[in-house]
Amino acid sequence: MIEKHLEGKVALITGAGSPKGMGQAIATRLAEAGADIVVSDIEKGDPDPSHKNFGYEFGAFKGLDAAVSKIEALGRKALAIMADVRKSEDVQALVKSVRKNFGRLDILVNVAGGDWGAALIKDYDESEFIKTFDINMFGTFRMCKYALPYIARKKGTIINMSSMAATRTNLFYSAYAASKAAIISFTESLALEYGAKGVRAFALMPGMIQTEMLDYEARATAGALNLSEDDVKKLYIDNTPLRCLGKPIDVANLVAFLCSDRASFLTGLAISVSGGLNIAYPISEIKF
Ligand SMILES: NC(=O)c1ccc[n+]([C@@H]2O[C@H](COP(=O)([O-])OP(=O)(O)OC[C@H]3O[C@@H](n4cnc5c(N)ncnc54)[C@H](O)[C@@H]3O)[C@@H](O)[C@H]2O)c1
Protein backbone atom coordinates (compact mmCIF):
# COMPACT_ATOMS: atom_id res chain seq x y z
CA MET A 1 0.00 0.00 0.00
CA ILE A 2 1.56 3.27 -1.19
CA GLU A 3 1.18 6.26 1.12
CA LYS A 4 -0.60 9.28 -0.40
CA HIS A 5 1.76 11.72 1.28
CA LEU A 6 1.84 14.15 -1.68
CA GLU A 7 -1.91 14.75 -1.97
CA GLY A 8 -2.72 18.35 -2.94
CA LYS A 9 0.75 18.96 -4.36
CA VAL A 10 1.77 19.67 -7.95
CA ALA A 11 4.98 18.28 -9.45
CA LEU A 12 6.74 19.21 -12.69
CA ILE A 13 9.11 16.68 -14.25
CA THR A 14 11.30 17.39 -17.30
CA GLY A 15 12.72 14.64 -19.53
CA ALA A 16 9.67 12.48 -18.84
CA GLY A 17 8.87 11.35 -22.38
CA SER A 18 10.52 7.96 -22.52
CA PRO A 19 8.26 5.17 -21.21
CA LYS A 20 11.40 3.33 -20.07
CA GLY A 21 13.16 6.37 -18.62
CA MET A 22 13.58 7.69 -15.11
CA GLY A 23 11.48 10.83 -15.75
CA GLN A 24 8.35 8.83 -16.50
CA ALA A 25 8.93 6.47 -13.57
CA ILE A 26 9.28 9.47 -11.26
CA ALA A 27 6.13 11.09 -12.68
CA THR A 28 3.98 7.99 -12.10
CA ARG A 29 5.52 7.33 -8.67
CA LEU A 30 4.70 10.88 -7.50
CA ALA A 31 1.18 10.47 -8.90
CA GLU A 32 0.80 7.26 -6.89
CA ALA A 33 1.77 9.31 -3.84
CA GLY A 34 -1.11 11.69 -4.62
CA ALA A 35 0.47 14.58 -6.58
CA ASP A 36 -0.95 16.11 -9.75
CA ILE A 37 1.71 16.03 -12.44
CA VAL A 38 3.05 18.09 -15.34
CA VAL A 39 5.36 16.11 -17.61
CA SER A 40 7.61 17.75 -20.18
CA ASP A 41 10.07 16.84 -22.92
CA ILE A 42 11.35 18.01 -26.29
CA GLU A 43 9.63 17.24 -29.57
CA LYS A 44 10.56 14.11 -31.45
CA GLY A 45 11.66 14.62 -35.01
CA ASP A 46 13.03 18.09 -34.33
CA PRO A 47 15.47 18.71 -37.17
CA ASP A 48 18.10 19.85 -34.70
CA PRO A 49 20.73 17.09 -34.85
CA SER A 50 21.71 17.83 -31.26
CA HIS A 51 18.84 15.56 -30.30
CA LYS A 52 20.95 12.66 -31.44
CA ASN A 53 22.84 11.08 -28.62
CA PHE A 54 24.97 8.01 -29.33
CA GLY A 55 22.84 7.66 -32.45
CA TYR A 56 19.55 7.38 -30.63
CA GLU A 57 17.01 10.06 -31.06
CA PHE A 58 16.02 12.14 -28.09
CA GLY A 59 12.79 14.01 -28.07
CA ALA A 60 10.28 11.72 -26.54
CA PHE A 61 7.47 14.27 -26.31
CA LYS A 62 5.02 11.83 -27.91
CA GLY A 63 5.85 9.34 -25.18
CA LEU A 64 4.22 11.79 -22.80
CA ASP A 65 0.79 10.59 -23.95
CA ALA A 66 1.53 7.31 -22.19
CA ALA A 67 2.63 9.18 -19.08
CA VAL A 68 -0.56 11.24 -19.03
CA SER A 69 -2.70 8.10 -19.37
CA LYS A 70 -0.84 6.32 -16.55
CA ILE A 71 -1.19 9.32 -14.24
CA GLU A 72 -4.89 9.81 -15.02
CA ALA A 73 -5.49 6.10 -14.42
CA LEU A 74 -4.12 6.71 -10.92
CA GLY A 75 -6.86 9.31 -10.41
CA ARG A 76 -4.53 12.33 -10.64
CA LYS A 77 -4.55 15.32 -12.99
CA ALA A 78 -1.88 15.30 -15.68
CA LEU A 79 -0.69 17.71 -18.32
CA ALA A 80 2.01 17.32 -21.01
CA ILE A 81 3.90 20.40 -22.18
CA MET A 82 6.65 20.53 -24.78
CA ALA A 83 9.76 22.45 -23.71
CA ASP A 84 13.40 22.44 -24.72
CA VAL A 85 15.41 23.26 -21.59
CA ARG A 86 18.03 24.97 -23.77
CA LYS A 87 15.52 27.67 -24.61
CA SER A 88 14.72 30.23 -21.96
CA GLU A 89 11.43 31.15 -23.66
CA ASP A 90 10.29 27.48 -23.58
CA VAL A 91 11.21 27.17 -19.91
CA GLN A 92 9.38 30.38 -18.98
CA ALA A 93 6.30 29.34 -20.97
CA LEU A 94 6.37 25.91 -19.28
CA VAL A 95 6.41 27.38 -15.78
CA LYS A 96 3.70 29.91 -16.70
CA SER A 97 1.53 27.11 -18.05
CA VAL A 98 1.88 25.11 -14.82
CA ARG A 99 0.79 28.17 -12.84
CA LYS A 100 -2.13 28.83 -15.18
CA ASN A 101 -3.40 25.25 -15.13
CA PHE A 102 -2.71 24.30 -11.52
CA GLY A 103 -2.18 27.59 -9.65
CA ARG A 104 0.79 26.25 -7.71
CA LEU A 105 4.06 24.33 -7.97
CA ASP A 106 5.48 22.26 -5.10
CA ILE A 107 7.99 19.88 -6.68
CA LEU A 108 10.42 20.30 -9.59
CA VAL A 109 12.40 17.30 -10.84
CA ASN A 110 14.98 18.16 -13.50
CA VAL A 111 15.59 14.91 -15.37
CA ALA A 112 16.24 16.21 -18.92
CA GLY A 113 19.82 15.45 -19.81
CA GLY A 114 22.28 13.29 -21.64
CA ASP A 115 25.69 13.16 -23.24
CA TRP A 116 26.50 14.74 -26.58
CA GLY A 117 29.53 14.12 -28.74
CA ALA A 118 31.23 11.79 -26.24
CA ALA A 119 34.92 11.66 -27.20
CA LEU A 120 38.42 11.84 -25.82
CA ILE A 121 39.25 15.42 -24.81
CA LYS A 122 41.63 15.94 -27.70
CA ASP A 123 38.88 14.93 -30.15
CA TYR A 124 35.95 16.59 -28.38
CA ASP A 125 34.02 18.90 -30.66
CA GLU A 126 33.75 22.26 -28.85
CA SER A 127 30.12 22.84 -29.75
CA GLU A 128 29.12 19.33 -28.59
CA PHE A 129 30.91 19.88 -25.28
CA ILE A 130 29.05 23.16 -24.80
CA LYS A 131 25.74 21.53 -25.80
CA THR A 132 26.15 18.90 -23.09
CA PHE A 133 26.48 21.72 -20.54
CA ASP A 134 23.65 23.66 -22.15
CA ILE A 135 21.17 20.86 -21.52
CA ASN A 136 22.46 19.29 -18.31
CA MET A 137 23.72 22.23 -16.26
CA PHE A 138 22.27 25.35 -17.88
CA GLY A 139 18.92 23.65 -18.51
CA THR A 140 18.78 22.82 -14.80
CA PHE A 141 19.67 26.42 -13.94
CA ARG A 142 16.97 27.82 -16.27
CA MET A 143 14.30 25.53 -14.82
CA CYS A 144 15.25 26.44 -11.24
CA LYS A 145 15.51 30.17 -11.95
CA TYR A 146 12.01 30.44 -13.37
CA ALA A 147 10.28 27.90 -11.11
CA LEU A 148 11.82 29.05 -7.83
CA PRO A 149 9.45 31.95 -7.09
CA TYR A 150 6.51 29.50 -7.16
CA ILE A 151 8.32 26.65 -5.40
CA ALA A 152 9.41 29.04 -2.63
CA ARG A 153 5.79 30.10 -2.06
CA LYS A 154 4.98 26.47 -1.26
CA LYS A 155 8.23 25.64 0.63
CA GLY A 156 8.75 23.05 -2.07
CA THR A 157 11.41 20.59 -3.17
CA ILE A 158 13.79 20.59 -6.14
CA ILE A 159 15.56 17.45 -7.33
CA ASN A 160 18.29 17.72 -9.95
CA MET A 161 19.58 14.70 -11.85
CA SER A 162 23.35 14.44 -11.51
CA SER A 163 25.13 11.10 -12.00
CA MET A 164 27.69 8.78 -10.41
CA ALA A 165 29.82 10.06 -13.29
CA ALA A 166 30.14 13.34 -11.36
CA THR A 167 32.63 11.70 -9.01
CA ARG A 168 33.64 8.59 -11.02
CA THR A 169 34.31 9.62 -14.53
CA ASN A 170 35.33 7.41 -17.44
CA LEU A 171 36.91 7.77 -20.83
CA PHE A 172 34.79 9.85 -23.25
CA TYR A 173 32.84 11.34 -20.30
CA SER A 174 34.65 14.65 -19.80
CA ALA A 175 31.70 16.90 -20.77
CA TYR A 176 29.01 14.71 -19.23
CA ALA A 177 30.87 14.14 -15.96
CA ALA A 178 31.85 17.81 -15.57
CA SER A 179 28.29 18.98 -16.28
CA LYS A 180 26.89 16.50 -13.74
CA ALA A 181 29.50 17.57 -11.15
CA ALA A 182 28.48 21.20 -11.74
CA ILE A 183 24.87 20.22 -10.99
CA ILE A 184 25.92 19.04 -7.52
CA SER A 185 27.65 22.31 -6.68
CA PHE A 186 24.75 24.30 -8.13
CA THR A 187 22.29 22.29 -6.01
CA GLU A 188 24.30 23.11 -2.88
CA SER A 189 24.05 26.84 -3.72
CA LEU A 190 20.32 26.38 -4.30
CA ALA A 191 19.86 24.71 -0.91
CA LEU A 192 21.87 27.46 0.78
CA GLU A 193 20.16 30.41 -0.93
CA TYR A 194 16.62 29.09 -0.50
CA GLY A 195 16.86 27.15 2.78
CA ALA A 196 15.57 30.11 4.77
CA LYS A 197 12.48 30.12 2.53
CA GLY A 198 11.84 26.44 3.31
CA VAL A 199 12.92 25.11 -0.10
CA ARG A 200 14.86 21.82 0.02
CA ALA A 201 17.16 20.82 -2.85
CA PHE A 202 18.89 17.55 -3.77
CA ALA A 203 21.14 16.21 -6.47
CA LEU A 204 20.71 12.51 -7.28
CA MET A 205 23.61 10.43 -8.52
CA PRO A 206 22.21 7.36 -10.26
CA GLY A 207 24.61 4.56 -11.09
CA MET A 208 23.85 2.14 -13.90
CA ILE A 209 20.09 2.34 -14.39
CA GLN A 210 18.43 0.17 -17.03
CA THR A 211 16.95 2.73 -19.46
CA GLU A 212 17.18 3.34 -23.20
CA MET A 213 20.03 5.73 -22.53
CA LEU A 214 22.02 2.97 -20.82
CA ASP A 215 21.34 0.55 -23.71
CA TYR A 216 22.65 3.00 -26.25
CA GLU A 217 25.60 3.94 -24.11
CA ALA A 218 26.51 0.25 -23.73
CA ARG A 219 26.18 -0.21 -27.49
CA ALA A 220 28.37 2.81 -28.24
CA THR A 221 31.01 1.77 -25.70
CA ALA A 222 30.95 -1.77 -27.09
CA GLY A 223 31.51 -0.41 -30.60
CA ALA A 224 34.38 1.82 -29.49
CA LEU A 225 36.10 -0.96 -27.56
CA ASN A 226 35.40 -3.91 -29.81
CA LEU A 227 33.39 -5.67 -27.13
CA SER A 228 29.84 -6.98 -27.26
CA GLU A 229 27.00 -4.98 -25.68
CA ASP A 230 26.52 -7.84 -23.21
CA ASP A 231 30.21 -7.69 -22.24
CA VAL A 232 29.88 -3.99 -21.49
CA LYS A 233 26.72 -4.52 -19.44
CA LYS A 234 28.48 -7.33 -17.56
CA LEU A 235 31.24 -4.85 -16.70
CA TYR A 236 28.64 -2.39 -15.40
CA ILE A 237 27.16 -5.15 -13.24
CA ASP A 238 30.54 -6.46 -12.02
CA ASN A 239 31.46 -2.91 -10.99
CA THR A 240 28.31 -2.58 -8.88
CA PRO A 241 28.53 -4.09 -5.38
CA LEU A 242 24.88 -5.23 -5.47
CA ARG A 243 25.73 -6.98 -8.78
CA CYS A 244 22.75 -5.75 -10.77
CA LEU A 245 21.60 -2.79 -12.82
CA GLY A 246 19.26 -0.34 -11.14
CA LYS A 247 15.68 0.22 -12.28
CA PRO A 248 14.00 3.60 -12.87
CA ILE A 249 11.65 2.82 -9.96
CA ASP A 250 14.66 2.64 -7.59
CA VAL A 251 15.32 6.30 -8.37
CA ALA A 252 11.62 7.20 -8.34
CA ASN A 253 11.16 5.72 -4.84
CA LEU A 254 13.98 7.92 -3.54
CA VAL A 255 12.44 11.01 -5.16
CA ALA A 256 9.06 10.24 -3.53
CA PHE A 257 10.75 9.99 -0.13
CA LEU A 258 12.78 13.20 -0.54
CA CYS A 259 9.63 15.16 -1.49
CA SER A 260 7.80 13.93 1.62
CA ASP A 261 7.66 15.39 5.11
CA ARG A 262 9.70 12.43 6.32
CA ALA A 263 12.71 14.08 4.70
CA SER A 264 11.88 17.53 6.11
CA PHE A 265 15.27 18.07 7.82
CA LEU A 266 17.29 17.02 4.77
CA THR A 267 18.60 19.38 2.12
CA GLY A 268 21.72 20.17 0.09
CA LEU A 269 22.63 16.50 -0.35
CA ALA A 270 24.04 14.69 -3.35
CA ILE A 271 22.70 11.15 -2.97
CA SER A 272 24.05 8.12 -4.75
CA VAL A 273 21.41 5.65 -5.93
CA SER A 274 23.75 3.18 -7.47
CA GLY A 275 23.75 -0.24 -5.80
CA GLY A 276 26.98 0.79 -4.07
CA LEU A 277 28.92 1.92 -7.14
CA ASN A 278 29.95 4.92 -5.07
CA ILE A 279 32.18 2.80 -2.83
CA ALA A 280 33.56 0.38 -5.41
CA TYR A 281 36.89 0.56 -7.12
CA PRO A 282 35.94 0.19 -10.79
CA ILE A 283 37.15 -2.67 -12.92
CA SER A 284 37.90 -1.22 -16.34
CA GLU A 285 38.44 -2.84 -19.69
CA ILE A 286 38.72 0.56 -21.28
CA LYS A 287 42.14 1.36 -22.70
CA PHE A 288 43.25 3.74 -25.37
N1 LIG B 1 20.48 5.69 -17.22
C1 LIG B 1 21.49 5.87 -16.41
O1 LIG B 1 22.18 4.91 -16.08
C2 LIG B 1 21.82 7.23 -15.84
C3 LIG B 1 22.80 7.29 -14.83
C4 LIG B 1 23.09 8.52 -14.25
C5 LIG B 1 22.40 9.66 -14.62
N2 LIG B 1 21.46 9.59 -15.60
C6 LIG B 1 20.74 10.82 -15.92
O2 LIG B 1 19.36 10.63 -15.62
C7 LIG B 1 18.55 11.40 -16.50
C8 LIG B 1 17.52 10.51 -17.18
O3 LIG B 1 18.16 9.53 -17.95
P1 LIG B 1 17.43 8.23 -18.54
O4 LIG B 1 18.45 7.17 -18.50
O5 LIG B 1 16.13 8.04 -17.85
O6 LIG B 1 17.27 8.58 -20.05
P2 LIG B 1 16.10 9.22 -20.93
O7 LIG B 1 16.63 9.32 -22.31
O8 LIG B 1 14.81 8.54 -20.71
O9 LIG B 1 15.93 10.68 -20.30
C9 LIG B 1 16.45 11.86 -20.81
C10 LIG B 1 15.30 12.70 -21.34
O10 LIG B 1 15.77 14.04 -21.54
C11 LIG B 1 15.13 14.54 -22.69
N3 LIG B 1 15.87 15.67 -23.24
C12 LIG B 1 17.04 15.64 -23.92
N4 LIG B 1 17.37 16.89 -24.29
C13 LIG B 1 16.39 17.71 -23.84
C14 LIG B 1 16.16 19.12 -23.93
N5 LIG B 1 17.02 19.92 -24.55
N6 LIG B 1 15.04 19.63 -23.34
C15 LIG B 1 14.14 18.82 -22.72
N7 LIG B 1 14.31 17.47 -22.61
C16 LIG B 1 15.42 16.94 -23.16
C17 LIG B 1 15.10 13.35 -23.66
O11 LIG B 1 14.18 13.50 -24.72
C18 LIG B 1 14.77 12.19 -22.71
O12 LIG B 1 13.36 11.97 -22.66
C19 LIG B 1 19.51 12.11 -17.47
O13 LIG B 1 19.77 13.41 -16.98
C20 LIG B 1 20.78 11.24 -17.38
O14 LIG B 1 21.93 11.99 -17.68
C21 LIG B 1 21.15 8.39 -16.24
Overview of the molecule:
With 288 residues, the protein is of the alpha/beta class. It has one domain: Rossmann fold (3-Layer(aba) Sandwich). Helices cover 42% and strands 14% of the residues. It is built from 8 helices and 9 strands. It has helices at 22-32, 64-73, 88-102, 126-153, 174-194, 212-225, 229-239, 248-258; strands at 10-13, 36-41, 52-53, 56-57, 78-82, 107-110, 157-161, 200-206, 269-273. Strands 5-2-1-6-7-8-9 form a 7-stranded parallel sheet, sandwiched between helices. A two-stranded antiparallel ribbon has the order 3-4. A hairpin with a 2-residue loop joins strand 3 and strand 4. Helix 1 runs parallel beside helix 2 (64-73), helix 3 runs parallel beside helix 4 (126-153) and helix 6 crosses helix 7 (229-239). The N and C termini lie far apart (50 Å). 49% of the residues are buried. The structure holds nicotinamide-adenine-dinucleotide. Residues 14-15, 17-18, 21-23, 41-42, 58-60, 84-86, 111-114, 135, 161, 163, 206, 208-209, 211-214 line the site of nicotinamide-adenine-dinucleotide.
List the helices and strands and how they pair.
Elements: E1 10-13, H1 22-32, E2 36-41, E3 52-53, E4 56-57, H2 64-73, E5 78-82, H3 88-102, E6 107-110, H4 126-153, E7 157-161, H5 174-194, E8 200-206, H6 212-225, H7 229-239, H8 248-258, E9 269-273
Helix pairs in contact: 1-2, 1-8, 3-4, 4-5, 6-7
The chain binds nicotinamide-adenine-dinucleotide (NAD).
CATH topology: Rossmann fold
Which secondary-structure class do the elements indicate?
A: alpha/beta
The N- and C-terminal alpha carbons lie at a distance of 50 Å
What share of residues are in beta strands?
5-15%
